[in-house]
Design a protein that fits this description.
This protein is 39% helix and 22% strand. By secondary structure, the protein is α/β, with parallel strands linked by helices. It folds into 2 domains: 116 residues, Rossmann fold; 104 residues, Arc Repressor Mutant, subunit A (Orthogonal Bundle), CATH 1.10.10.10. Strands 2-1-3-4-5 form a 5-stranded parallel β-sheet, sandwiched between helices. It has a 5-stranded antiparallel β-sheet with strand order 9-8-7-6-13, with helices on one face. Helix 4 links the parallel strand 4 and strand 5. Helix 2 packs parallel to helix 3, helix 6 packs across helix 7 and helix 6 packs across helix 8. The relative contact order is 0.11. The model has no long low-confidence stretch (mean pLDDT 88).
């Protein structure tokens, strides 16, 4: 483990944060902490930690919600540290994108070994929570969409659809893939959903007088969000 690695602790218990800070700093980590889910998400976006230790019992939102929101835009390694010890909790967290799960009270050497392991497996770098393409900007952390600097209100489905297209910007996303990711595996043949929502989305994010549109239809295949040179998810 590099002595420049940064760990972010997201836990509302002061004593746990203090204990983890002592353990991690002794191992050479630079340590950040947050006492709520919203603060934790902001810290990940702003400070770019190398690994996150996430408690599930947070005061403002469940840790599972934090994990799912984080996984919308970041692949930073996440180790769940929780008193919930049921197998269903562990399976749910791992399925939602956690890299490992340790129950409290924890053994410090084991915790450090697991942190090293998930960092070794992690891809190089993490996605940025901001996306830009022409007049369109998306903040995946706050789920805010702006057109020429003005916020536009999208429904949950419209946002999910735009998010998938942005994450694959410049590439064609097939009808089935969009239906599966936005509506679920049982909706792969329901192409009428897609046509209706793409019409709504275009009305909200396209500029009426623009000669070049952001959302392109690939006839019989799917849709593509055009990516101007030098734009996209910022690295």
């Amino acid at each position: 483990m590099s002595d420049t690695s940064t760990a972010l602790i997201i836990d509302d218990e002061v004593q746990i944060r203090r204990l983890l800070r002592l353990v991690l700093e002794a191992e050479g980590y630079r340590v950040l902490d947050a006492e709520s889910g919203r603060q934790g998400l902001s810290e990940v976006a702003l400070r770019r930690p190398d690994v996150v230790l996430l408690d599930l019992g947070l005061p403002d939102m469940d840790g599972m919600v934090v994990l799912r929101r984080l996984r919308e835009w970041s692949r930073v390694p996440v180790l769940i540290l929780s008193v919930r010890e049921g197998p269903e909790d562990k399976v749910a967290a791992l399925d939602a994108g956690a890299d490992d799960y340790v129950t409290k009270p924890f053994d410090s050497p084991e915790l450090l070994a697991r942190l090293r392991a998930i960092q070794r497996r992690a891809p190089f770098g993490a996605e940025d929570p901001y996306f830009e393409a022409g007049h369109l900007a998306i903040d995946f952390n706050s789920r805010t969409v702006t057109v020429k600097g003005h916020e536009v209100k999208l429904t949950a489905t419209e946002y999910s659809l735009l998010k998938v297209l942005a994450q694959h910007a410049g590439k064609v996303v097939t009808h089935k893939q969009l239906l599966r990711e936005v509506w679920g595996p049982n909706a792969e043949e329901q192409s009428q959903y897609l046509r209706v929502y793409m019409t709504h989305l275009r009305k909200k994010i396209e500029l009426p007088d623009a000669t070049e549109k952001l959302l392109k239809t690939e006839s019989g295949i799917g849709y593509r969000l055009v990516l101007p040179t030098g734009k996209g998810i910022r690295q």
